[in-house]
Write a structure and sequence with these properties.
The protein is an alpha/beta fold and about 180 residues long. Helix content is about 45%, strand content about 25%. The protein has a single domain, classed as 3-Layer(aba) Sandwich (Rossmann fold). The chain has 7 helices and 9 strands, in the order E-H-E-E-E-H-E-E-H-E-H-E-H-H-E-H. The longest helix has 15 residues. Bound molecules: guanosine-5'-monophosphate.
């Protein structure tokens, strides 16, 4: 069996960039592809970054108990389909759940010993700069996400590991070591 890894951090902190690089370097690491009702960003691919679904489709899976966890975040649903995670774990992959804090807390309740990692930005100012620089969200959404980020950071100590994404290469190496060590 592979290892389940809980991986959280505020929007814009670089979680996705770090994880993509980890998966490129280590083929034993897989992202659990979530379902979301959010609209795809220009560079996102359905089935790779997310499964983009309607609200009705999302709620159908809730009714069928098909999620390991799910949450509403900034007006959209996000959830982890159980079957896919189980299949990848059985195949021996280390499966990363890249999810926000509400979902993270649900997972910790169900798996108290889970390997958990929280990624922090060097500062809130740096995060704001990154979110604006990304240019994928309007100002209203950015403000919502920054507020949410401040809220989420309060939960960082619930995670076993806290990694500051100051220098990307260092953060990637640190997280890779945590996943390999499995503690
Ligand atoms: P974004 O819209 O920026 O892709 O994601 C917004 C937030 O939702 C991020 O913190 C991301 O990690 C989180 N997220 C992505 N997939 C899931 C999921 O399946 N469940 C939960 N609870 N959060 C998710």
């Amino acid at each position: 069996m592979g290892r389940l890894v809980l991986y959280s951090g505020c929007s814009g902190v670089g979680k996705g960039t770090i994880l993509k690089e980890l998966m490129r370097r280590d083929e034993n690491i897989k992202l659990s592809v979530s379902n979301t009702t959010r609209a795809p960003r220009p560079d996102e691919v359905d089935g790779v970054d997310y499964n983009f679904v309607s609200k009705e489709e999302f709620e159908k899976v809730i009714a069928e108990d098909g999620y390991l966890e799910y949450a509403k975040y900034c007006d959209n649903y996000y959830g982890t389909p159980i079957k896919q995670v189980n299949d990848m774990l059985t195949q021996g992959y280390n499966v990363v759940l890249e999810i926000e804090v509400q979902g993270g807390l649900q997972v910790m309740e169900n798996f108290p010993n889970i390997l958990s990692i929280f990624i922090l930005p060097p500062s809130l100012e740096a995060l704001a700069e990154r979110l604006r620089g990304r240019g994928t969200e309007d100002e209203d959404t950015i403000k919502k996400r920054l507020k949410q980020a401040e809220h989420e950071m309060k939960y960082k100590d619930r995670y076993k590991h806290v990694v500051v994404n100051d220098k990307l290469e260092d953060a990637i190496n640190e997280i890779h070591n945590i996943i390999i060590n499995g503690k």
